[in-house]
């Protein structure tokens, strides 16, 4: 009996999934977005993007979501972002999309605007719903933002729709609107960041208006049969630092508000909601402990996903903490997610979906502890060190090499310095400083 149940659960990972728009995904693996850091100063896609996404497509995932593609080249979220605001790079975008859709995979472009979360190394004049700097250990990377005017808000909405239109024309098979992780749409949603007193601020209906306007404009641009996903925070605080699962950041975007927004998106025709959490002030990646951190935390956001289970019919992609087939099978079998969101493990095992579905692979992907060997450096850089380390692995794949888990943290730190410049070494701002 148990064997039959296990086989049934294992088969669920390989089952197709029909989306509300009518499109069918071949299996439940959802490669979640990671910044590839592969674009040059021109913000254009490169041959490295093509090679990286071809590798992942051949690896067996049902959906590949790209890293941040910005809707404005003057407002980047990270060094190395691609930006799409016109058709000048359409030939390379087509090559990227074609590579990412090999082997029956879907390749969805994640479209985004960083708001105030635009590093000072690439943008000294960020925009945001309201003025106010980023607090926490990452604050040193960002300049003070300027509050958006209504005209600028409408321009950004048009930009999201235009980028989605170009993505469809290039051959990408869907888009994901990034409304999480402290970027611009999340800033509108959060009362900690949004202090406006017009139709885009105040009560939740107004704070969510920007997201709904973006979604509606994108839907109009791509039509009713083109998949649109939304990446949304369960709350503004990641699970590792929550005191109360239902609280979120004190005064911030919380779980009750997130569920309400999800219901409104479902009514508007969203195809997938990618559940996440945290911001740069309170990042999801808390330490550089790798597998030890994963064992402490397990699959991320499962308590929230259980709350949502009976509330929504739209497919959920639960991203974070899936390291082995058993956890994937359990989450699918329990019905708390319909897609298995995978990110960092695919930078080390690009063919993980094939191994699980085709080869019956039962091992865990143990992420290494990332260390420079110098404790003060490890403590100072934490999540930045981890992000840079995985970007290095993606760079290896993009250049036709195998991932190398033996790469040390010092190389990751040097990569971060190359990306962020001297700002990476500036002292942390004192807590509470404005």
TrEMBL record:
GO molecular function, one term: FMN binding
Pfam families recorded: Oxidored_FMN (PF00724)
Keyword set, alphabetical order: Flavoprotein, Oxidoreductase
Domain of life: Bacteria
Span of domain NADH:flavin oxidoreductase/NADH oxidase N-terminal: 16-356
PANTHER family referenced in this protein's UniProt entry, alphabetically: BINDING OXIDOREDUCTASE, PUTATIVE (AFU_ORTHOLOGUE AFUA_2G08260)-RELATED (PTHR43656)
Protein name: NADH:flavin oxidoreductase
Taxonomic source organism: Bifidobacterium cebidarum
UniProt lineage: Bacteria, Bacillati, Actinomycetota, Actinomycetes, Bifidobacteriales
């Amino acid at each position: 009996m148990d064997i039959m149940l296990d086989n049934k659960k294992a088969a669920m990972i390989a089952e197709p999934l029909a989306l509300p728009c009518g499109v069918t995904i071949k299996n439940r693996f959802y490669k979640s977005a990671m910044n590839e850091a592969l674009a040059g100063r021109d913000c254009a896609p490169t041959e490295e993007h093509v090679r990286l996404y071809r590798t992942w497509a051949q690896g067996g995932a049902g959906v590949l979501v790209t890293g941040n593609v910005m809707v404005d080249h003057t407002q980047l979220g990270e060094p190395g972002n691609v930006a799409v605001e016109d058709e000048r790079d359409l030939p390379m975008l087509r090559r990227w999309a074609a590579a990412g859709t090999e082997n029956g995979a879907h390749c969805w472009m994640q479209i985004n605007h960083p708001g105030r979360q635009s590093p000072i190394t690439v943008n000294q004049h960020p925009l945001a719903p309201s003025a106010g700097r980023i607090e926490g250990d990452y604050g040193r990377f960002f300049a003070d933002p300027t509050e958006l005017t209504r005209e600028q808000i409408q321009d950004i909405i048009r930009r999201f729709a235009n980028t989605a239109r170009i993505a469809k024309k290039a051959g990408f098979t869907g888009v994901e609107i990034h409304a999480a992780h402290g970027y611009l749409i999340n800033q509108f949603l959060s009362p900690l960041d949004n202090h406006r007193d017009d139709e885009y601020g105040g009560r939740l209906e107004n704070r969510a208006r920007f997201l709904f306007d973006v979604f509606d404009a994108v839907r109009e641009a791509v039509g009713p049969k083109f998949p649109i996903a939304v990446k949304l925070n369960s709350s503004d605080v990641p699970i590792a630092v929550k005191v109360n699962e239902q609280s979120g950041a004190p005064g911030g975007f919380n779980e009750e508000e997130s569920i309400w927004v999800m219901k409104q998106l479902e009514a508007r025709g969203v195809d997938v909601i990618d559940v996440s959490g945290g911001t740069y002030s309170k990042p999801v990646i808390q330490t550089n402990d790798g597998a030890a951190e994963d064992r402490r935390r397990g699959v991320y956001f499962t308590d929230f996903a259980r709350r949502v289970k009976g509330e929504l019919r739209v497919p959920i992609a639960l991203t974070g903490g899936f390291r082995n087939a058993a956890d994937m099978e359990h989450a699918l079998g329990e019905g708390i997610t319909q897609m298995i969101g995978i990110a960092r493990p695919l930078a080390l095992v690009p063919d993980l979906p094939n191994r699980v579905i085709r080869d019956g692979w039962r091992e865990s992907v143990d992420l290494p502890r990332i260390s420079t060997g110098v404790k003060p450096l490890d403590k100072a850089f934490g999540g930045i060190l981890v992000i840079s380390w995985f970007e290095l692995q993606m760079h290896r794949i993009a250049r036709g090499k195998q991932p190398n888990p033996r790469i040390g943290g010092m190389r990751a730190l040097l990569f971060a310095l190359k990306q962020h410049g001297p700002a990476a070494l500036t002292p942390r701002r004192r807590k509470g400083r404005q």
